[in-house]
Amino acid sequence: MRVSVDPDLCQGHNRCYALAPELFEIDDFGQSTARVDNVPPELQDKARLAVANCPEFAISIEEDE
Predict the structure, then answer these.
(1) 37 lies in which domain range?
(2) What is the pTM of this model?
(3) Alpha helices, DSSP H, located in 1-65
């Protein structure tokens, strides 16, 4: 699984970081970026929770096949 943040959609609510600081980091302007390329299995539920809680729908997940 891979997680990514669309910088054009992110408005800096930081809910993703609050829910999964292992997966997201915040820059000096409050914008979120993905911290990891591949989400470890033990953090996949947190990644899905971050997607569900993003009010701007800026986070997306690409599932492995």
Answers:
(1) 2-62
(2) 0.90
(3) 15-19, 44-53
Q: Please, which pLDDT band fits residue 64 given cuts at 50, 70 and 90?
A: confident
Residue 1 to residues 36, 45, 56: CA-CA distances in angstroms? 10, 11, 21
Considering Cα of 61, then 62, then 64, then 65, what sign does the dihedral take?
A: positive
Calpha distance 1→56 (Å, rounded): 21
Domain total of the chain: 1
**Residue 65 pLDDT exceeds 80:** no
Q: What is the CATH number of the domain that holds 7?
A: 3.30.70.20
Residue 59 pLDDT greater than 80, yes or no: yes
Cα-Cα-Cα-Cα dihedral sign, residues 5, 52, 40, 18: positive
CB 21 within 8 A of CB 49: no
